[in-house]
Design a protein that fits this description.
Layout lengths: L2 H4 L2 H29 L5 H32 L5 H30 L5 E3 L10 H9 L28 H8 L20 E3 L4 H14 L3 E6 L4 E7 L6 E11 L3 E10 L8 H16 L1
Antiparallel strand pairs: 1-6, 2-6, 3-4, 4-5, 5-6
Helix pairs in contact: 2-3, 2-4, 3-4, 7-8
Length: 288
C-alpha cells in the first residue's frame, strides 16, 4: 500500500480541506471583530456585514462540505484518516452553527430593548455634552422621556412596534409571581436604590468610584446636581452604550440612586443594558 493510499489520497486531502474550512468558519467571527478592534473597518462592516452577513453563510458552507467529506470518506474502500478529519470538520462546523443558532434563539427570546432605567416615572435625561458625544459617533437611538419600540422591530418582533419601552421592560423583568427563578425571565428586575442611612455626598462619591472601577469613560460629572454620565465601550466591536446616573437626597439624610443605560445603535441589546444596570447597582451598594 502506498503512502498516498494510507493517507486516503484525494479523499484525505478533501477531508483536510473540509477541516481547514470549518476552522476558518469559526475563526471568521474573530477576524470580523479583530478588524473592527484594529480600526481596519467600522462596526457596520465588522458586525453587520462580515459577522452577521457572511458569517452564517460561511459556517453553513463549511457544514455542507464537512458532511460531504464524511460521505466521501466512507464510500469505496473507506480510510480511517479521511474519516477522522471529516468528523473533526463536522464537529467544528456543527459547534459553530450551534452557537449561531443559540444566539439567534436568545435574540428572539429577548424583547427589542436598548434603553433601560430604574425610574420611568421620572426619566433621566441627557446633558448637551452627552447628546453631542452620541451624535459624533453616528448614534441613531435617541434618548427620550417616553420612547416607544421602533417600527423596524416588526420584522423579528411582530406586534411590538409602537409599545412604550417602559411597559415592555416591566413585562420582561423578573417577577416572583410569574417566574420561580430569575433566570426564567428575559431581564433581571432593577429598581431605584433607596438608601435611608447614606447621605447624598457619600452616595455620589460611591457612584463615581464605581463608574471609574468599571472602566467607563466619564462624559459628565456634576456633584452639585448629583449627575454622572459615562460611556461603556465593548471590547471587540467597540459598541458604545451610555450610562446616566442620578443621585438625589432622600428623606432625612438619606439618598436615592437611579440609573439609565442606553445603546447608541441597534434595536435589541440582547440584555446588555439591563445586566449593566444590575451589576452597577450591586457593585455600588457593596461599596457603601
Amino acid at each position: 500500500m502506498t503512502n498516498s493510499d494510507q493517507n486516503g489520497g484525494w479523499r484525505g486531502r478533501f477531508s483536510a480541506f473540509a477541516l481547514a474550512f470549518a476552522v476558518f468558519g469559526a475563526v471568521w467571527f474573530f477576524i470580523a471583530a479583530g478588524g473592527t478592534k484594529l480600526g481596519l473597518w467600522d462596526w457596520r462592516t465588522g458586525f453587520g456585514t462580515l459577522a452577521m452577513g457572511w458569517g452564517p453563510k460561511i459556517v453553513m458552507a463549511a457544514l455542507a462540505v464537512s458532511a460531504l467529506a464524511i460521505i466521501v470518506s466512507l464510500v469505496m474502500a473507506p480510510r480511517k484518516r479521511p474519516f477522522m478529519l471529516a468528523l473533526g470538520a463536522l464537529l467544528v462546523s456543527g459547534l459553530s452553527m450551534g452557537r449561531i443558532y443559540a444566539t439567534g434563539e436568545n435574540a428572539k427570546r429577548l424583547p427589542p430593548l436598548h434603553d433601560i432605567q430604574t425610574d420611568w416615572a421620572n426619566p433621566i435625561m441627557p446633558t448637551p455634552a452627552l447628546v453631542s458625544a452620541r451624535a459624533s459617533t453616528g448614534a441613531y437611538n435617541e434618548i427620550e422621556a417616553a420612547p416607544v419600540i421602533a417600527d423596524g422591530a416588526k420584522g423579528n418582533w411582530p406586534g411590538m412596534e409602537g409599545k412604550l419601552v417602559s411597559e415592555v421592560q416591566e413585562q420582561a423583568e423578573f417577577d416572583p409571581d410569574r417566574q420561580k427563578k430569575e433566570v426564567s425571565a428575559p431581564y433581571p428586575h432593577i429598581e431605584t436604590a433607596i438608601l435611608p442611612a447614606v447621605p447624598f455626598d457619600m452616595a455620589y462619591q460611591a457612584a463615581l468610584e464605581t463608574v471609574n472601577d468599571r472602566g467607563w469613560t466619564i462624559v459628565t460629572a456634576e456633584p452639585e446636581e448629583g449627575r454622572i454620565e459615562a460611556t461603556d465601550t465593548s471590547f471587540w466591536f467597540e459598541f458604545k452604550d451610555d450610562v446616566l446616573i442620578r443621585v438625589q437626597p432622600e428623606g432625612e439624610g438619606g439618598s436615592r440612586v437611579d440609573v439609565r443605560s442606553v445603546s447608541r445603535v441597534g434595536l435589541s441589546d440582547l440584555g446588555a443594558n439591563a445586566k449593566r444596570v444590575k451589576l452597577f447597582l450591586e457593585d455600588f451598594e457593596a461599596r457603601l
